[in-house]
Amino acid sequence: MMLIRPYPDEQETLQSYVIRLAKFNHYQFEHWSQHLSQQSISLRQRDAKSRELLTSYLHSVTGMDNVFNLFDQWQFYNKDKRHFDYKSIKVCPLCFAENKGKILSLWALRYYLVCTKHDTLLVDKCSKCNSAITENTILQGKCGSCVKEVTTFETEVVAPDSFSLELARAAQNQIFDTTVDLINKLLIIYTKLEACSSFIYQDGQALWKKKQAYSIEEKYHHQMQVAELVENENKLVSAIGRYVNLALEEKLYDLGKVLVKFKSYIGNEKFPMMTSAIRTFVLTSEFTEDQRVGVTWLNNLFGFESKMFKNFIIDKYPSLVFKQSVPLNMAKTIVIDFKGNLS
Ligand SMILES: [Zn+2]
Ligand SMILES: [Zn+2]
């Protein structure tokens, strides 16, 4: 048993509790970490089995049953690591002051960027010298380089983005207790962010692919822009329109090729608004004579029975079909006609 055994807080991460055990017992983090590697398993082990062994060891030295309830993002490393922060530690300095140096589970979620209690952007660096926040920073409660106290790190006051708000609400509804729900929620947010990133970066800005290198502030601005689109289908339809028009300037006429990045979002139940917005775009926009759409692509978009749809077009519009595609400005007529034919 350890000499001093603080109570785990149900809102803190396992990492946070590990750090606090070192702090309360006056261990240096390196020594404590070495001790864990020798007696149990390294803190850096990433497979679920090792994480269980580590948690069991912490239980045996603290006697605290709720160690098993603490959220541990490393247990998701092999399958779902995209949703969590590992290298960096994000904190709200105001919460950090209030909760006496704990790391909240919410902060480990990659899309949680704004503290919804204080309306402040989370920070992962010392505001004075820019050094990254590490486990040692948390343990000491101050920057390892310039000794500025974490509770005095400066933060930017911002309006929370809707993804941070959604996650804060989910946390209040105990989402951390149900792994399946948590991953599902994160996957929906991830899908929306990925799906809309092409619209936001269509003006030749850096690619969302490099998002890992973005600062919290850059990620926040990205999330705010995506939120605007996913909360308003009309705006999403307009964004699709701008995207298609830009491609038109480059003489790209096949809608399926223009929207190739969106292929996996058509019919995707994680983000149904994307499918519905592309349908609206096809049915309500004006197109040039050159713009075309593949019959198969159109069929996928509207979820029709493919053979029936193809035969219908060949029968009804024999002169239109050329290389399996039809003029885009006829798509609306064809789709409405086919639906009428079905009923
Ligand atoms: Zn806060
Ligand atoms: Zn510093």
Automatic annotation (TrEMBL):
Domain of life from the UniProt record: Bacteria
InterPro entries: TniQ
Matching Pfam families: TniQ
Domain (TniQ) ranges: 4-122
Protein's UniProt name: TniQ protein
Organism in which the protein naturally occurs: Colwellia chukchiensis
